[in-house]
Request: fold
Amino acid sequence: MDDKNLEKKLPLLSGKGMWHTNDCDGAYPQLHLSDGPHGLRRQEENVRSNNDSYESTCYPTASCLAATWDRELLKKVGDSIGKEAIDADVSVVLGPGVNIKRSPLCGRNFEYYSEDPYLAGEMGTSFIKGVEQNGVGTSLKHFAANNQETRRMTSNSRVDERTLREIYLSAFESCVKNASPATVMVSYNYLNGYKATENRHLLKDILRDDWGYEGVTVSDWGACIDLAKSVKAGLDLEMPGLGKVHLEKLKKDIEAGVITEDEISPAISRMEKLIEKYAVENRKKTGKAEFDPHKTALEAALSGAVLLKNDDGTLPLKKRGKINVIGELARTVRFQGGGSSHINTRPQPNIIDELKEAGFEVNFAPGYRVDTQAVDEALIAEAVTLIGNGRPTIFCGGLTDLAEGEGYDRKSLDLPENQLKLIERMGGKDVIFLSFGGSPFAVPFLNKMKAMLHMYLGGEAVAKAAVMLLTGEANPCGKLAETWPVKLSDTPSCNSNKETSNEIYYKEGLLVGYRHYDTRDIKPLFPFGYGLSYTTFEYSELLLTAGNGNNRKVSFKVRNAGKIPGAEIAQVYVENPDDGFIRAKRELRGFEKVFLNPGEEKTIEIMLDDRAFSVFDTGLGRFNVASGHYRICVGPSSRELPLRGMIPAEGKNYKTDPSGTDLNVFIGKEDSDLDHVKPGEYSVYNSLGELSKKSLLGKIMMKLAIRIVYMVLKKPHDDPEVMMAVETIKDGPLDCVIQQSGGIPYGIATAIVRQANRKK
Reply:
């Protein structure tokens, strides 16, 4: 490629506007990239409000989709989103998110599937296949170790190599190898001292060389700061492209020999292939596809709801009649999260309307407000009076938009104070708890509830789905894809998630989620994989059959022993031998969802391969079978495993030679310390919030930017969209804030840095 041709193609490495790839002055078609892990959020270029987008279908969020444990359903949802993307001229859907739920406090957990990498990988793989079978690309995100929202743009995830490979990268690996997503989105955070967009070990050694990925790597919006460093490390496309600052610097870096044509050409080539494959102009004309997206959204909401408690067969409701409904979430139903995934969907009926449609006479009292946590005594009194009529009562509660959302983390496991006070005043009444939220929360009042049906954030059809499940028109079959703890101090990372530090040490290592609870024998409120049904299932006849090498076929029978049809999610765990090095007690290695009529029995077969008995050996630099005798456990949850059998595995004897199993191998900058930057070391990589403490200009800039956000969005300061925007201004790298400011000269950033570096 000659110098002139290279210069013409360089813009391919940077976007054009917020949502499009660069057309290089008409030389290439543009691709429209759109948010879309649970529905399209297609926006025009000049729009800045997250919630101002084209109308589209809102499917359940990832936390709810994962609770379906249904590969085919995930593929169906992906297919439906892919078809909507075609109609909207979208080329790449920005999803799915497969980051591990390290802590229940992460504000963005509703966008992620699970605490378990195997389950997350299976769900992500199915979603990708569903979308991409339409000729629409996906973007697997957020790569990698992006497990909190607090300081998400500047924090440094300190993760040892074995934990990184076995837990935090495993779902990505599965999706890359089994579904080949069009793009992989690289996260904001640092990983072991290197910004993810500049982390060669992550983007080249692992993603390209180890996993064989051939698609495009794209930065999260504003995550790329130095384009030359990023491309050298393995990044192909920076998004968005709101100016020419980075491109102009790249040209100078080429002239200075900082980066060579040979290092740039592969990225350009991959971008050309992406455009050729996914450009709207190049799509085959097949006519408008016939599909019913709302019907798919309803099916997913029904399948992802989890029945957590059902004393004395309280549910399903036995008869239509007069009923009490308490809780504002019945009227203002929360069916999705806030932030970049927020879907503008057509209005849908609420719980009250759906109950009336089903034949109930509803007496409603809001009891609390959703736009504040403040206790309203008048609303509580009204609700308590209503309960006194002796009719069946449904309490609708859970996490509100103020509690969880992109850009900010939760402060505690508790429900909003006004809901807790209402529940306390309701006394020991027999109540059905219909709950909503993208993450687990504490339920200290569970003994006051006769039943609890958790709808997660079930998308636009969640109210219809809830009433169908409450009345028995549908049988709940969802199971938890995450552990629900009793209290925050029981969670594995409770002592290492620090709001005030940029250095985040993953001290719990491999013991994340149920691995932590089961290994340390901590009783959860609800275990991983748990979920009740209106029918019962029986497991029997476990048979373990050897195959080639360490491959094993696990065969068993599941029977519907109840009186109504239902679906069971059978789970296979491998219980590890005690080999003297750190491993979880047991790990999910297979599952199957099966529908059974009353009395019907089916045989389920699940194959286990080498990976089911392997650890990542840091000395060998690969996964390797650990020899020993493993117990295969089968059942309906991680804590209820009625079928058990032993099998041997042949491999390295780590009991006599534990080398390669240590959790102290870190690949990155050992001396990285983002908490103690000194004058003379500041740069546009530092956050505006941090620089404002050292620069008067930075302080003025931050105050002005926040004031503009309040003026432009015209919403309360605690509105989720406003909070996300403000946190981005405070915690975002100065480069990102300036580039996305809408016109502030980049020289201001240079001046702020210069001023901060002068201040002693």
Summary: The first helix runs from residue 3 to 9. The chain has a mean pLDDT of 94. The chain has four domains: 12-44+52-282, 305-482, 530-649, 688-758.
